[in-house]
Write a structure and sequence with these properties.
Blueprint lengths: L10 H8 L10 E5 L5 E3 L6 H10 L6 E5 L5 H12 L3 E7 L2 E7 L10 H4 L7 H10 L1 E5 L12 H9 L3 E5 L2 E5 L8 E3 L5 H11 L5 E5 L5 H12 L3 E3 L5 E5 L7 E4 L4 H13 L3 E5 L9 H7 L2 E6 L2 E6 L8 E3 L11 H8 L5 E5 L9 H7 L3 E5 L2 E5 L8 E3 L3 H13 L3 E5 L2 H6 L3 H7 L3 E5 L3
Parallel strand pairs: 2-14, 3-13, 9-10, 17-18, 21-22
Antiparallel strand pairs: 1-22, 1-23, 3-5, 4-5, 6-8, 7-8, 10-12, 11-12, 14-16, 15-16, 18-20, 19-20
This protein binds uridine-diphosphate-2(N-acetylglucosaminyl) butyric acid.
The site of uridine-diphosphate-2(N-acetylglucosaminyl) butyric acid has 28 residues, from helix 2, helix 6, helix 7 and helix 13.
Length: 450
């Protein structure tokens, strides 16, 4: 699986052309002096995993699609560059700190996909469904993304085939055609895959006839995508359930859509407030967005309560305690919160068992947390954590987006200085995290390598 590397020739200029707000040279190391309580308001950005499919949905219509509350992260910049190469016009604007993107796909060139950009992100696989639906053809290098498991795309391909597409995979290239257009189909997903549900939804809205996606994923980001598609004129029922029904074939109009809050950023910052014994206001946060994690967090000693302005997070009076969690599809405990929660549990009283049931290799943060003094043993897909009194600062490497967040949390709570490298991973998923944490009292500085 591909590691991220921004030093591909021409990459910086392509990102700068597509996403001028992106700052590629804002320091390759992050130093955190731990032990300060985080206090204040931490603005929760639009959700990374919602905005990416929403950006792709603009390929389905020649009309303007405007997305508000767009998070300023590296994945958004990479996808913007990919869409630009496909012929999509991009217009960025900011109003009161809110980043908005208007996409215009009046002409789409399905052959313009850059292999090195696709290698950087998993969500590029969504281009397959959207390009097939709009252009009747798509050619895509195998998508990359975080090295957290096998990450097959067989459900995506089987679903598109059921809709009449011819799909071949050769030499790392996926080619798909549907010269006569896609047709509605009854599709049963073997597992509730987030990406496959989104890909098939994007394809189904322009297909002729009715598509039913059974055992669909129920992650809130899917309902956010469907809500935007409905605003564009698509006919979709069953939002938020395991069964989505799409009556396709209607030409889509444009839409204006406000991206939902990032529930993973929300849960991560709740952990940060409790670990540092501070108090954070998390605007637009809601407990229902956290699914089962809301109860798990309460059990671990995070006091989270809803107010009119969002959530307030702090450590409960009884302190942090070990808990057992198993990651599951929504509304189960989110795999994307597994690493940050592990960081929290390294300093909770007693023992915890963390089982990862979604991805095969999502414990790469364990070795890095151990460097900080964490007591963690991995047996297969379960990590057993024994809480220690205090982590200590260390030099650590980010290995994927959520591992990066876990190491930031460790650094905020540790005694002494923690220095992180591999920051592309952090940048992929988090919008201005350094600035937001500093504004809440963290001693955190980004710098270039000496
Ligand atoms: N799977 C298959 N075949 C398929 C599709 C999935 O075997 O065709 C397997 C995967 O290998 C995995 C499981 O099914 O073991 C679940 O994968 P899913 O398709 O649900 O995940 P995804 O679409 O690749 C999205 C998020 C991930 C998040 C997962 C689970 C985006 C861009 N990515 O990935 O986010 O962990 O859903 O919630 O939405 C992250 O943000 O750090 C991240 C990795």
């Amino acid at each position: 699986m591909m590691e991220q590397d921004i030093e591909v020739p021409g990459m910086k200029s392509r990102l700068a052309a597509a996403a001028p707000w992106w700052q590629p040279t804002n320091g390759s190391l992050l130093a955190i002096r731990g032990g300060r309580p985080l206090v204040g308001t931490y603005p929760i950005s639009g959700a990374k995993n919602a905005v990416l499919p929403l950006m792709v949905s603009a390929l389905l219509t020649p009309h303007l699609v405007t997305l508000r509350n767009v998070p300023a992260n590296l994945d958004v910049a990479v996808l913007a560059a990919l869409l630009q190469r496909l012929g999509c016009g991009l217009h960025w604007s900011t109003r009161g700190g809110d980043l908005a993107l208007t996409l215009s796909a009046d002409r789409v060139h399905p052959a313009g996909i850059d292999a090195d950009l696709v290698a950087r992100m998993r969500a590029s696989v969504l281009l397959l469904g959207a390009l097939l639906a709009r252009c009747g053809e798509a050619r895509l290098p195998m998508p990359g993304g975080d090295a957290i498991g096998l990450r097959a795309i067989d459900f995506h391909i089987a679903g598109l085939r059921a809709m009449g597409a011819t799909v071949t995979q050769e030499g790392g290239l996926i080619s798909a055609t549907a010269p006569a257009g896609l047709r509605g189909a009854d599709i049963l997903l073997p597992q509730p895959s987030v990406g496959a549900t989104e890909n098939l939804l994007l394809a189904a809205v322009l297909a002729n006839g009715t598509t039913t996606i059974r055992n669909a994923a129920r992650e809130p980001e899917i309902a956010d995508l469907a809500t935007c598609l409905v605003a564009m004129g698509a006919r979709i029922t069953g939002l938020g359930t395991h069964r989505l029904t799409v009556t396709g074939g209607t030409a889509l109009a444009g839409a204006v859509h406000h991206v939902m809050p990032d529930r993973i950023e929300l849960g991560t910052l709740a952990c940060a407030a409790a670990m540092t014994d501070g108090e954070l206001r998390l605007p637009h946060g809601r407990l229902d967005l956290l699914g089962a994690a809301a109860d798990s967090f309460a059990g671990a000693g995070i006091d989270l309560h809803e107010t009119d302005g969002g959530l307030v997070a702090r450590r409960a009076a009884g302190g942090l305690r070990g808990i057992d969690i198993t990651t599951q599809p929504f509304p189960g405990f989110a795999t994307d919160l597994q690493a940050p929660t592990m960081a929290l549990l390294t300093v909770a009283a007693g023992a915890s068992a963390i089982s990862e049931s979604i991805f095969e290799q999502r414990f790469r943060h364990v070795d890095e947390l151990r460097k900080m003094g964490a007591d963690i043993a991995v047996h297969g897909r379960t990590a057993r954590v024994r809480g220690v009194d205090r982590l200590r600062g260390a030099a650590v490497t980010c290995t994927d987006v959520r591992a990066a967040a876990a190491l930031v949390l460790g650094g905020l709570a540790a005694a002494g200085e923690t220095v992180l490298d591999g920051l592309d991973h952090l940048d992929r998923g988090y919008d201005r995290m350094t600035e937001k944490l500093a504004a809440c009292g963290a001693a955190i500085v980004r710098s270039d390598r000496p």
